[in-house]
Specification:
This protein is α+β, with helices and mostly antiparallel strands. The protein contains 25 helices and 19 strands.
Length: about 625
């Protein structure tokens, strides 16, 4: 795990700026630093040592000395690829997984990228063609940003801040800011700045004297044609998850797990505990208040009970309105732009505790809900009559608290396919944004519903919405939250539920195949019922939710923060992002029978980000 940075064909012909860029990502790699220069290419890395602690220095160099690689991540199938290349006559100097990348490219060129199973952001220099490749993994687990410059030049890095050295006054991306309160993040490949972009997942940027273009690559589509019965599907799920987890246990440093009392993290923790004797688990505890999404907010006691059953250590972080508030600055500084996913605070504080205890790798249960259809909104979605759309409803969302049961189902069935995609689990409505944002500043912005246009297909089904969540929501929200908040404290995160084979398995089957016994993730429950207590197998879905709505309405300090955010003294107002009536309109929004806490949290974090980015605190 590392942070990478560099530039190619720019006016900077030395390494001075590169050193400054790498200095912005010490958190991603506190253990070592390396740089490589060739003509007008300068690239480097910061290292977080996980594997081959003594000899994993970068750049990695191919046997013919023509391919150089700086990279961030883990290649989980490197052992198989290494053996494969050794049979072809290749030799290796280290036991580090990254050395496979350069030799695989020497053998197969661009076709090598789809052979990699793992999480990665790669900068690869091919000396023969004098071409730079910037490659990102198939689900977008590792970040990689770039900015195009004059004469086909490019600057790149693992965070956004390192690219600001190339933009004298980076322009805010108003379309991205408009979209932000709807999703809680700015959808990739856009960022908070107009001329900084994210390399899309499953893609690479190819740069040389003739071209500078994004090219996508495909991952293998594994065949599951012989699997017919539910019994076979259940057995295969067990095999695929177990195989993926074992690949993600490759480490020469201590490993831990996130542990709630839910199904997904319990499966991961149970499997790891069978393979690691001194496992440490980490849980979040809240004050005893009601979670408006799933009941009681605090799951820590149940998590502790399960850890005792497994015989592993459990460490609990108690989160209150006070320490959540105190963490907002570091939360902002590590988010690569404004980010409004409040549960990221929990990941942040757990990563901090893990690092204090010497744990450098944390395994998460993220991805199971996307792969196996586990989110709570899939249940009503499963009852919709997809053959009879009415396209009438344009106001209601599932964040509303006054619509339940049959009335909810009727409303969902009255929505257009695009609006339904938004209404299931996203946040600020276009009309709500109009009441807060400055209309002149955002007059040319498109509606955020455009991100759901691909749901309006000839054949409409629940599976279209699962695929949308796997491709859009998972990368933009879940993976960004996990990577940025863990790396804030130099901890590597891994997601066993989203291997290439599991992703392919999900594409080859339907929601009904996973919804066994009329239960969300029924197939996953059945696959691991032998290693989990019945209480976890039968437990209803309980998301990792923060009591943000409660704090905003009941905590004095949080209420003061809301007032400041929408005041004339805020950066939002000074940057002409909000209108003069926004504070009054926010009070009206809070009176709605709707969960608007995350919408307001978005504006809070945008204001904090502006304060820290433009007042000298975050460079």
């Amino acid at each position: 795990m590392c942070g990478i940075a560099g530039y190619f064909k720019t006016t900077y012909n030395n390494e001075d700026v590169l050193l400054k860029m790498l200095n912005t990502m010490k958190n991603r790699g506190p253990d070592d630093q390396a740089i490589f220069s060739y003509k007008d290419l300068h690239m480097g890395s910061r290292r977080l040592a996980i594997n081959d602690l003594l000899s994993g220095d970068q750049p990695f160099i191919s046997v013919n000395n023509k391919v150089k690689v700086c990279y961030n991540g883990e290649i989980y199938n490197y052992y198989e690829l290494k053996k494969f290349l050794e049979k072809k006559g290749y030799s290796f100097k280290t036991k580090c997984d990254g050395e496979v990348i350069c030799n695989l490219f020497q053998e197969y060129g661009e076709k090598s990228f789809h052979m990699l199973e793992g999480m990665f952001a790669i900068s690869l220099w091919c000396e023969r063609s004098e071409t730079l490749f910037l490659v990102r993994d198939y689900i977008g687990e590792k970040p990689l940003y770039y900015s195009t410059l004059d004469n086909n030049g490019v600057a790149f890095g693992s965070n956004i801040n390192c690219l600001k050295f190339f933009l004298q006054s980076p322009k805010l991306n108003y379309q991205g800011i408009w979209d932000y309160p709807t999703f809680l993040w700015i959808p990739e490949p856009d960022t908070i700045y107009e001329n900084i972009f994210s390399i899309p997942k499953s893609s690479f940027l190819k740069v040389n004297s003739r071209t500078c273009k994004i090219i996508s690559y495909n991952i293998p589509n594994y065949s599951f044609n012989k699997i017919k019965s539910n019994k076979q599907k259940i057995e295969h799920v067990n095999e695929l998850v177990t195989e993926s987890l074992e690949q993600r246990l490759i480490s020469d440093v201590p490993i831990g797990t996130f542990l709630s009392s839910g199904l997904d993290s319990s499966i991961i923790t149970a499997l790891v505990s069978q393979r690691i004797s001194d496992l440490k688990t980490f849980s979040v505890g809240f004050e005893n208040i009601t979670d408006p999404y799933h009941g009681n907010a605090d799951e820590s006691r149940l998590a502790n009970d399960f850890s005792k059953l497994l015989g592993v250590e459990n460490y609990k972080i108690h989160i209150s309105d006070k320490n959540a508030l105190e963490s907002l600055n570091i939360f902002s500084d590590n988010s690569d732009g404004p980010f409004g996913v409040s549960s990221g605070i929990g990941v942040l504080l757990l990563a901090e505790e893990a690092r204090k205890l010497g744990v450098k790798v944390l395994l998460s249960g993220d991805g199971a809900d996307e792969i196996f259809g586990g989110y709570s909104w899939y249940k009503p979605l499963n009852d919709i009559d997809f053959d009879n759309w009415k396209n009438l409803e344009e106001n209601m969302t599932m964040q509303q608290t006054n619509i339940k049961g049959k009335e909810l189902l009727k409303s969902l069935n009255n929505m257009s396919p695009e609006y339904l995609g938004y209404a299931l689990h996203y946040y600020a409505h276009e009309l709500e944004k109009e009441k807060i944002f400055n209309s002149e500043t955002f007059r040319n912005c498109k509606k955020s519903l455009r991100y759901f246009n691909n749901l309006n297909t000839a054949h409409k089904s629940i599976d279209n919405y699962l695929e949308h969540d796997r491709d859009f929501y998972f990368t933009n929200e879940m993976l960004r939250k996990l990577d940025r908040m863990c790396m804030a404290f130099s901890v590597e995160s891994r997601v066993p539920f989203f291997s290439r084979k599991l992703r392919s398995f999900a594409k080859n089957f339907k929601f009904k195949d996973f919804f066994l016994d009329d239960r969300l993730k029924g197939i996953l429950r059945s696959a691991f019922k032998e290693i989990l207590p019945e209480s976890i197998i039968k437990r209803k879905k309980h998301g990792f939710n923060f009591p943000i709505d409660y704090w905003i309405k009941n905590s004095k300090k949080w209420k003061e923060l809301v007032l400041h955010t929408f005041s004339n003294d805020s950066e939002l107002f000074k940057f002409n992002l909000i209108n003069r009536e926004s504070q009054k309109n926010v009070h009206e929004i809070l009176k709605q029978k709707k969960l608007n806490g995350h919408t307001l949290f978005c504006y809070i974090m945008l204001n904090i980000w502006l304060e820290r980015s433009y007042n000298g605190n975050n460079c």
